[in-house]
Amino acid sequence: GSLLSDKEPNNRLIVVSNRVPSPKGAGGNQGGLAVGVMNALQKADGLWLGWNGEIDGDNNAQLSHYDFDGVRFATFPITEHDHKTYYTGFSNEILWPLFHYRPDKVEYSRESLDGYLRVNQRFARHIKPLVEPDTRVWVHDYHLIPLGYYLRQTSVDAPLGYFLHIPFPPWDVVRILPEYEDLLRYLTSYDLIGLQTEIDLKNLRDCMVMALDARDLGDNVLEVEGRRFKIAAYPISIDVNDAQDLAKKGEQSATGQRLKRSIGDRPLVIGVDRLDYSKGVYKRFQAFERLLENAEHQRGNVVFIQISPPSRTDVHEYAQLRSTLERVAGHVNGRFADYDWTPLRYLNRGYGREAVFGFLRQSRVALLTPLRDGMNLVAKEYVAAQDPEDPGVLIISHLAGASWELKDGALVCNPYDIDGVSDMLEQALAMPLEERKLRWRRMMDVLETNDIHNWSQNFLAELMEMKLANSASQ
Ligand code: F6P
């Protein structure tokens, strides 16, 4: 029963991303891409190609093929120098902060740029022999922007799609990057470029017009130097049924029961994010501290559990954030904890998906306050994980992509406004059951109409449409 191949039996699909889900006991710090794409691919007859997460001195290492969790994979290692320049350097010290509107954190170097281009070329070399004329190639995220260009250079004429999982910033931020015009030009090699939200779409369109003099042909189709491509928003989502099953199992599991025993009747607030400065956890801790200052009846009562698995540990900013959060967490507990109550449980590690979904289901409030986030799938996972008879309350930052779809049911906060977030937390903790149910239903309706399967189906259908139009106009 494969959703995509039923429709297009001869149409092969190659998905490409930097990181692929790890078969070595996924530790739970994989981010939205791995989760979303995995769910989509399990239903398709596709191959997923990417970095295997390992460092290897051999620049010519061949692809290893294996099956995992119902998906075929082809992966390869990269060298230490490539890891430093392509992954840590250009992807995570330059593009990541820039695309999250944080130019203050950009550490630009030409060496990083060279590594980025070199590894993208290497991806193209691995992919080229796998592509037949009817193979669709779907490239994911900021690590691989130039890949489409390199594939076209080796005369790959297949439909090429690209999806950006993180925000796309405004033109005036983008042009901080010395090579911003090249980067935008690489994107024009794809037939379809997908973004998370209408804001990201507007920003990319502006850039294409301002930097490359793109002609707007209507219906989201642009033309640059004779090449036509479409840009559109496809908010990524989750597998709702899968999330519900996992949450029920997780709650019943030994881990879920242990959490329950340790909390008792106290209300639980939860945050789950990779340890990343874009997630706003520092200000989130301050908002929680403010709640304990203001709402005396919550002392000895509310428990906040923040799960933050370490991420990108070679990047200086991440190491610094780690010690900042340790200090603030220690400060909050030192100030308010009592002999039988610890207000803040700060967990610097990941848990398996079932355990996390069980935690989400047991939490009265999810407090997700990124300073900027492409989507934030944890917000959607929290909603799907709830017990319909006793659902919890979602507090989501208005700077997360997910807030656009969930705003009619969630409490939408400004993560920079610490007093505001603290007030909202109080409101959430006091919210009556009827209101919680009503709000939850509104959010569930959204998730049920646009789940992960619609997401990949829509994207791939529009990719084919655009490719056909392009071939016809040549
Ligand atoms: O979802 C956004 C994302 O940046 C993915 O591209 C990435 O795989 C994930 O977060 C986790 O980050 P990393 O791969 O650097 O560990």
TrEMBL record:
Instruction: Enumerate the CDD domains for this protein.
Output: GT20_TPS (cd03788)
One Pfam family linked to the record:
Glyco_transf_20
Tree of life domain: Bacteria
Family recorded in the similarity comment? Belongs to the glycosyltransferase 20 family.
What is the name listed in the Swiss-Prot or TrEMBL entry for this protein? Trehalose-6-phosphate synthase
Q: Which organism is it from?
A: Larsenimonas suaedae
